[in-house]
Specification:
There is one protein chain. The chain is mainly β and 164 residues long. The protein has a single domain, classed as Electron Transport, Fmn-binding Protein, Chain A (Pnp Oxidase, Chain A), CATH 2.30.110. Helices cover 9% and strands 38% of the residues. The chain has 2 helices and 9 strands. The protein has a 7-stranded antiparallel β-sheet with strand order 2-1-5-8-9-4-3, with helices on one face. A two-stranded antiparallel sheet has the order 6-7. Strand 6 and strand 7 form a beta hairpin. The radius of gyration is 15 Å and the shape is globular. The two termini are 12 Å apart.
Length: 164
């Protein structure tokens, strides 16, 4: 435990680990995220925290779409090439293997177990380093058979923490 009980408690929350892909015209990107949740049944909404300084933030603002790529823990190596931002890895999409999603055109990354396509419903500035991105689900697909929620990649599977 640290001297910050709020940080300690926030680090106990379990987070999935996803790749968020986006596109605007010919420009595509993939980033990683863990603050992603379903927030509504009707309409189906996904909400995520999106860092204001990320390359994807501007791309999502321009393109108005994004896709959540879900990975099994066993396939975590497939997501690793996207853990560095564009500033540190400007050519990360040059060798990325993906197919365009049917509804949005955003990349569906090779190795993903499933994907969820979204159109931006709102991007909310809450006065912090992240905006809240609300996306309406417009398509999805399960790419690997017999996948269970217990198979899915968590932030802790990588030994990482992004909380507090």
């Amino acid at each position: 435990m640290s001297s910050d009980p709020i940080k300690d408690a926030l680090k106990l929350m379990r987070y999935g680990f996803y790749s968020i892909t986006s596109c605007s015209g010919d420009d595509v990107n993939a980033m990683v995220a863990n603050w992603v949740i379903q927030a509504s049944f009707e309409p189906r909404l996904i909400v995520m925290g999106l860092q204001k300084t990320s390359y994807s933030h501007g791309l999502i603002e321009r393109g108005g779409v994004f896709t959540v790529n879900l990975f099994r823990a066993a396939d975590q190596e497939a997501i690793r090439p996207f853990t560095k931002g564009r500033a540190k890895n400007p050519d990360k999409m040059a060798n990325a293997q993906y197919t365009p999603a049917p509804e949005t055109g955003c990349p569906i990354l090779a190795g993903a177990a499933a994907y969820i396509e979204c159109r931006v419903a709102q991007m909310i500035d809450v006065g912090s380093d992240h905006d809240l991105l609300v996306g309406e689900v417009v398509g999805a697909g399960v790419l690997k058979e017999d996948v269970e929620t217990t198979d899915m990649l968590l932030l802790t599977d990588l030994g990482w923490s992004y909380a507090g």
